[in-house]
Design brief:
368 residues, alpha+beta, Beta-lactamase, 2 domains, 7-stranded antiparallel sheet, two-stranded antiparallel ribbon, 12 helices, 32% helix, globular
């Protein structure tokens, strides 16, 4: 892929199981920095996490974190700069590129359509694309959802403004890299294909359907591509590992209705940590999918945590600049959403310095 790649939605085992799991100076950095504080609970573990993140901010961390347990906000805080060059501080209302955290949203859209009786995850691509090549006709939607369809990962850069027809042609005509069902081969293009299917089956634009059926039931309104109306001044500016300014996601080419189809459906939505965390909790609370669909979601996207117990999931996303992390111990009702925008101090790396404290909060949640 040209340019930075997006992280896998399914993190490594160290993240999923949560058992065992230097920054260059930015140009024109202001002399002083204050932190935007919403909530820091009076708990030694939360205070330790805050101290770790405050130290990381001194080394260049720019981000926001939300930790919740049993419907209580334990920590919600911003660190560093939203725009170091202009001196705009990060706040808990700053928006980020959420990377591959878009994939569970697209997956929920497919399961919602199944719940509505409009498709089945056992349907093959031939149902939706009668002219699909022979090697792809029998691929099921569940294989696409679980990255076992054998499809290529990407066909170009995130910010190539390519059409739906272009990406569909590439997907259908590219040779498979594995036989369907043979093994997992991570595929961003597969989730763009699912977004196309959502449009075909629902009769709506992908983002409109997702807003109506997947986001609004969760009470989430500032998560999406163009519909939430994000402006540059509300978004975090990304910085490369060497401190070079990369810009905001909307400083890069998009079509009028959102990013090109190399990115649409698989990555690149914009959100605050709070809105993202709210969406996950609404999903787990059954506000988006009914019991049968939710159990199917857990079946392919959650695992068992030996460190805390019960079901857990860990999702990560990124484009080489922005980095996003969601860790949820579902049965313990303990969740962390952590976003960063400076490549040298990524959320996926920084969180390891407070992993023990987070696991302790999860264990406490299981005991309640």
């Amino acid at each position: 892929m040209n340019g930075p790649t997006r992280s896998s939605i399914i993190c490594s085992a160290a993240l999923l199981l949560v058992a065992s799991m230097c920054f260059g100076s930015l140009s024109a950095q202001p002399a002083e920095l204050t932190q935007s504080v919403e909530v820091v609970a009076s708990d030694v573990r939360i205070e330790t996490i805050d101290a770790v993140l405050s130290a990381a901010a001194e080394e260049g961390l720019c981000g926001t974190i939300l930790i919740r347990g049993h419907d209580q906000v334990l920590m919600h805080k911003a660190y560093g700069w939203a725009d170091a060059d202009s001196g705009r501080e990060m706040t808990i209302d700053t928006g980020f590129d959420i990377g591959s955290l878009v994939k569970p949203i697209t997956g929920a859209g497919i399961l919602k359509l199944e719940e509505l009786g409009k498709l089945s995850t056992s349907d093959t691509l031939a149902r939706f694309f009668p002219d699909a090549p022979a090697d792809k006709r029998d691929i099921t939607l569940m294989q696409v959802l679980t990255h076992t369809a054998g499809m290529r990962d990407v066909f170009g850069g995130d910010y190539q403004v390519v059409s739906r027809e272009w990406i569909l042609d590439k997907i259908m005509n590219a040779p498979l890299i594995a036989a369907p069902g043979e093994r997992e081969e991570y595929s961003n293009s597969g989730y763009s294909l699912l977004a196309i299917i959502i449009e075909e089956v629902s009769g709506q634009a992908y983002e409109e359907f997702i807003r109506d059926e997947v986001l609004e039931p969760a009470g989430v309104h500032r998560l999406g591509y163009v519909l939430p109306g994000w402006t540059r001044g509300e978004l975090a500016v990304g910085y490369r590992r060497d401190g070079e300014r990369w810009g905001t996601p909307i400083d890069h080419p998009w079509a009028e209705d959102g990013p090109g189809w190399n990115l649409r459906g698989n990555g690149g939505m914009l959100s605050t940590a709070e809105e993202m965390g709210r969406w996950y909790e609404a999903l787990f609370d059954g506000k988006i999918l009914g019991p049968t669909a939710l159990e199917k979601y857990y079946g392919y996207d959650a695992g068992q945590s030996p460190s805390v117990g019960g079901r857990a999931l860990a999702h990560a996303g990124g484009n080489g600049i922005f980095n996003t992390l969601q860790i949820s111990w579902i049965d313990a009702d303990t969740h962390m959403t952590f976003f960063s925008s400076c490549a040298a101090r990524e959320a996926e790396s920084v969180w390891r310095d407070f992993r023990d404290e987070l696991v302790s909060l999860g264990k406490e949640g299981m005991e309640r």
